[in-house]
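1st attempt posting a full record on here, be nice pls
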Amino acid sequence: MADTVVFPIDTPAGRRTAKVSYERLGGGEPLVLLHGIGHHLQAWDPVAGILAAERDVIAVDLPGFGDSPALPDGVAYDLRGVVPVLGALFEALDLDRPHVVGNSLGGLLALQLAHEKLVRSTTAISPAGFWTAGERRYAFGVLRGMKRGADSLPPQAVARLARTAAGRAALAGTIYARPGRRSPDAVMAETRALRECTGFAPTLEAGRDVLFTHDIADVPVTVAWGTRDRLLLRRQGVRAKKVIPGARLVRLPGCGHVPMNDDPALVARVILDATR
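the predicted structure (as tokens):
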């Protein structure tokens, strides 16, 4: 069951409050999990229990996604807007430089948190920000198509599709290499999360000019990429390694853009190794 935390943040209009939904389980060193655009914290469900055996796991609904409401007026959905909110969230939850793992948008945020030395390690799984202009346009086009589909399909049609492996492939095959492994309830819930999120359009708009160009020398960084990622192609991982030469680049064989469901044991092992 998710909890919520309300905490103060600085905005162009002065001090305001942000509200974030999160789930916390396990014990040990703190480990924060950040999902991708249009998704929600339940993306981490396949690995959260494994990680919680060794870590204090905090899975977060990013502002404007899942059960977390939109950012206050005037706060942008770019790195300069969202990263300070995450820093304030860490403070509100009494997390002193946690390990952070992020997927896609969450991976980009995790790398920026490392650049700003707000974390003790970063694991970025298929992070955004290492694309060419053409690759970004392709990815954004696919994401907009997914959003249009989620907006236009009645809930009854989603439920009907989610009951079959072929239907789950139609709904979620873009992000999972093995969408048939995702449960019908999970596919319905993430389709609803994509339909209802308030942060989708402003996040895409903010991402139009994003490139991650910072070397990160003093925080351990792992970059992991699924070999069957159809959204952010795996050659972008090679570019990430060139930008961050000290990073460990890990292949996730047979995994798609959101690999936690494709191979939970492998992804959990990569995360635990990276946070030791």
